Every structure is written in structure tokens, then in C-alpha cells.
Amino acid sequence: MSLSRLRRTSNPLQPHASATASTDDRTATITPATTREDIGEQMAQTRLISLQEAVRRYSWDGMQYASGAALPIGSDAIIFGRELLRQGRRDLHAIFHCNSQQLNLLAAAGVVIKAECGFSALEVFGFANGLRRAVESGHMALEDYSNLGLPLRLLGGALNWPFVPATVNIGSDLQYRSAFAPDDYPSTHKIPTVVDPFTGREIGAFSPLKPDLAAIHVTLADPYGNSIMLGTEWSRVELSRAAKKVIIIADAIVDTDCIRQYPNLVRIPDLVVEAVVHWPFAAWPQSSPGMYDVDEAHMKFMNKALGSEDGTAAYIRDFVTSYRDIDSYLDMIGRDKIAELGNSNTSFLLDPYRRWILPPDEVAALSAQEVAA
Amino acid sequence: MSETLDYSRQEMMAIATGREVKDGELAIFGVGLSMLAGYFAQANHAPHLRTMTEGGVYGATPVGGLPWGIECNRISTNATSFTSAIDALGFLVASGRCDVGVIGAAQVDKFGNVNTTGIWDDEIGHHYRPPKIRLPGAGGANDIACGAKRFIIMVTHEPKRFAEKVTYLSSPGYLEGGNARERFGFVGGGPSAIITTLGILRPDPDTKEFQLDGWFAFSSVDEIKAHTGWDLKVSPTAHMIAEPTATELANLRKVDETGALRKH
B110 pLDDT exceeds 60? Predict the structure, then answer.
């Protein structure tokens, strides 16, 4: 299908834009491609699918699931974790560069049996009570690395390397203690020692990571999965190349012309993307730079709730299974709160991209196309 | 306390930490109080400090008080570059380029080894059972401890935090002391100071055991020794650390707008 027909604003910097379809003629038939843009649009199928469908199609019990895209309280596909719970997924092996409220929630709910992390708290919001409870009770084995160790392992997976030389995490209990092999002390398998063939010096070796699925939160994606992340990337680039399947969870969907305007900033290209889910405030209560701030009150409320079984059950009742769709999800957060969080100091970061953001009805129409196809 | 200035122990700790950071250096700060100490240095005496966080936020001047995360709007608003963890902790720290890092600790031992992973009742033993209290984990501190040319440890001075030997070693200081770090080829030089709510400890040049180097106007050698879980040696040159100046306090509070450091 041609996105040109759905574009609200044509790109003034692209002289051939809309040469074959006027922006306001939504009934125009597709004419033979005369521009690179039209060729691309006719060849590619939109990858937009619903959140429910993404979880149904790409997740299973016992899988290695990676998410927690950007730091403990930043951009993260938390909405995907909520849907994993809604669909009853369990026995997950979580790969989270940093813990986030998503992992905190999944751990509190008891559906994670193994996790690998570089950092396991919630930055200034304190310890992650759900994760902590799962670890201290012995329900979940948490394997520790550092915030460089984890992305290096993802890089190794992305490059299909047999191992990654470890210059960090060695000489500490990150190397000697393994939660996955608790009787192996000092551990010889977690970060084993290898000999540098050039110097003869002993060094550590990280095992590469190739998660079954990564749900990666981004600020903006086009319907094919070309993604722009405002704020830091954290390890989303390495993760997007390491995972066997990648689902993009985008706060907003933009026209592909936006992508062509900023190709340097597209660090996750559609080439590695399986599907795209549009979900505003997908990282809530965490932040999405440019889009919305962290919801400080809910961060505290949620973390407190996850500290007990009863609190977790109530949280799941009120904030996981309570909404039906995007509209009722936004109602659940509260429209006033949405406006407050959206009025962020970092809003200027989004300004160059605003004109390309597709309105919800157009995104829905594109998703419907995918289902029909 | 000074007759004219009223400040908290945490504020003194942050100012003493900030004083260790020099103008023009490339510096990385962890989340929380270490950020306030680092950005205080920039506001006070190191305007050309090149700052970064482990998430790859560069060149930021925080606004609105203690950042609640390492890429939150309080620092993202003013950043000059956003990159990634491999860039910050790898290209700039593990590579050996970073001059100084500031990290926190739940537990620290006499060789400057840091535990931020968990609390066990006693020795963990050979079977790695779950901790009694699970802590945040290493985060970027292990990478800073391995790679930064030097690093500073900030920690509340309590006996339970100052152990003869940490129960879990999350971030390497001088390991068993002496030149033990050489065994691992770390490009970083190790911890240059432990700055606490009561004073400053620095490593003996040979043994690398941390000794008392200074106390604050409101603390004393005896109080510090009583709050340290090993038999703390006192350096012959130990002295009282200068109190904050009015300018230092004003600059600190400009960074700590929400008063996070005044609460204790």
C-alpha cells in the first residue's frame, strides 16, 4: 500500500514526494513507481500489528526474553511485559541489561525463573521490590554482570562471535559467583579464563547472548520498523542485532519520509525488525525522553505494591488486566496525568519530528491493512 | 559545625568528593549522590570538566535537583550528546580514557573493594545461596573500577558498611592489596579515596590498605575508628579537612536544588 496517500504533510525537501499521489486524494490508485519512495512503499509490507497479536505470535513459556531497553527508569517496552502477564506467559528467562519496572513486575508476578542483569535496582527510586522478593525467596536466579558486561555479551551475539574478551567483571565475584551454577565456586564457566594468543596473558571470556525475542521500546518508528530513539540508545542497537526476533514498541508512528529525513538517526533499521506495535505511553511509568517524563508518584506506588504478594495481585488487577485498548489504557493513567507528563523539559527533543507523526486513525488503518494482507 | 555555616554530613561528603575532581578531566558519575558531588565540582571549581554518565549522556548541566536517573529529563535537557552504554563504559572508560569516576557502596573493605550486590548473614561459602538482602548489583561501577584512571568511593560511615572483607566483591578496589590488580591487567589505577560522612580514607602507597587521612570539623579520629569495621590505621599526616566555604555550599545547593543531601 502507498503511504503517500496517508501522508498529512509532504516533505518540502524532497522534490519528488507525492509525485504520484496527492496528499488529500485518498482514493487514488497506485500508479507505476517513479520515485525511490514509491518503489520502497510498494515492495514493503507494513509490519504494524496489535500488541495482543505480537505477544500471541512471538512469545512462549520458557523463552529467553530480552527487554528493558534503556536504563532502569528510561525508555522500556513495559507495555509488552503487561501483555505477557495478560496472556499468562511464564517460566521466562529474562535478559535485561538493567532491571526496569517491567522486570520488577514480571519477577513480582513470579513468571521469571532466571534473569541476567547489569543493574538490578530502580536508580533513585530505590531497590526493585518485586525483583528483590523473587531473588531473596529463591524463586528466581539472578545472574549478575555489569552495565558494560551485558552489552558486550549482546555485541558478541550480534556479531556471532564465539566469545567476547572480558576486561571488566574479572577479578570480582561477578566472575566467581554464578547464580545459575551455585555450587561452582569459584565459577569456571560463567566468565572462564582464556589465554590472549597475542600476549599470552590470561583474560576473561564472556559468553555471547542471542535472546529468542527482544521487545524494544523506541520513540518513533515507521510502519516497517525503522526506528528513531530520542535519549540515549543504551544497548538497544546491540540488542536489536543480537535477538533472534525483534518487536519494536513505538510511542508514535511516523511517516517513512521522516525516516528519510533523518537516516543517520535510524539506528534500528527495518532489516532486523519482525513487527511494530504502536502504543502511546508504552514505557509508563518510566520516561521516554522528548515524549514524557517519569511518573514519580506511580513509580513509587508500583514499586511499593510489588513488594508483597497481595500488593502485586492488586497491582495486576488494577493496572495490568484493567484496560481493554489504548484508549482505556490512557484513561487508566489519567488524562490529566498524561498531559502533565507530556509537558516535559525534554519536549524540544521531539520538535523536529512532530510533523511526521501519524494520527491514531491512520495508524489503525495501516494495521488493518496488515491483518487483511 | 562552623559557627556561620550549617551543613549536613552528606553535604560535607559531597563537597569533599567534588574537591577531588579537577578541571578539564573526563569524569563519569554514577546515579544518585555521586552525580551531585560530580556536578558540584563542575559548578564550583571545574567548569571545563568533561562529564558523562554511563548511559552516554554527555556535556549535561543538571537542572531541577538530583537527577532520578542517568538519562532523566533533569540531565537530558542540557546534554550535548546522547550515545550508548558501550560508548560510555567501553569506548571512553574500558579503553582507559576516563580520568575519574565516582561510585557509591553498600559495603567497602580495607582494600577499597566494593559490595553493591547483596547482604548475607555471614560468609557466603561455596554454595551461592540467595542473599538475605538483595542490593542493586554492580551496574556501571564495576566497569568504572576496572577502567577509570582513578575512582572515588562515596559511602555513609557505619561499622556494618566498613568490613574487613566484603562478603561479595562487586567492584574491584585493590583486591588483596599490594599489586594484586596487576594480575588482571586492569587499565584503571584503582580507588584513590574513600570519602565518607565522617572523613577521608586514602590507600597506603605500598600495601594499598586504606588509612584515615582526614576527619571533618564535626567528627574525630576516635569516632571514625569506632565506626570502621577493621582496625583502621591513622596516617601520620592525618588532619582536619577544611569546612565548606560559603561559596562551595552555595554551589552545591545550586546543583542539589531539591535538598537530597540535606536530609541526613
Answer: yes
* φ and ψ of A91, to 5 deg: 55, 40
Q: Model confidence over A183-194: pLDDT tens digits?
A: 999 999 999 999
Which residue in chain A has the smallest CA separation from B139?
A119
Q: At residue B225, does pLDDT exceed 70? A: yes
Give the one of B85, B130, B187 whose C-beta lies nearest to A234's C-beta: B85
Single-letter amino acid, residue A113: I
CB contact under 8 A, B72 and A287: yes
Q: What is the pLDDT of residue A3?
A: 46
Residues of B recognised as catalytic = 54
Question: Is the CB of A294 less than 8 angstroms away from the CB of B72?
Answer: yes
Q: What is the pLDDT of residues A52-78, one digit of tens each?
A: 999 999 999 999 999 988 788 899 999
**The complex's ipTM?**
0.96
SS3 at position B86: helix
- Could you give the domains of chain B? 9-255 (3.40.1080.10)
Say if residues B203 and B210 touch (Cβ distance below 8 Å): yes
**Averaged pLDDT for residues A314-337:** 98
Taking the C-alpha atoms of residue B158 and residue B204, their distance in angstroms, rounded to an integer, is 22
Secondary structure of A187-238 as H, E, C letters: CCCCCCEEECCCCCCEEEEECCCCCCEEEEEEEEECCCCCEECCCCCECHHH
Residues on chain B touching A70 (C-beta within 8 angstroms):
55, 71
B contacts of A294 (beta carbons < 8 Å):
68-69, 72-73
Rounded Cα–Cα distance for residues B215 and B220 (Å)? 6
Query: Does this model's pTM top 0.80?
Result: yes
- Range A144-149 average pLDDT: 98
Query: How far apart are the C-alpha atoms of B77 and B110, rounded to whole Å?
Result: 40
How many Å lie between the alpha carbon of A175 and the closest alpha carbon of chain B?
Answer: 9
Which whole-number Å values give the CA distances from B132 to A133, A135, A138, B107, in the listed order?
10, 9, 10, 14
Local structure of B50: helix, strand or coil? strand
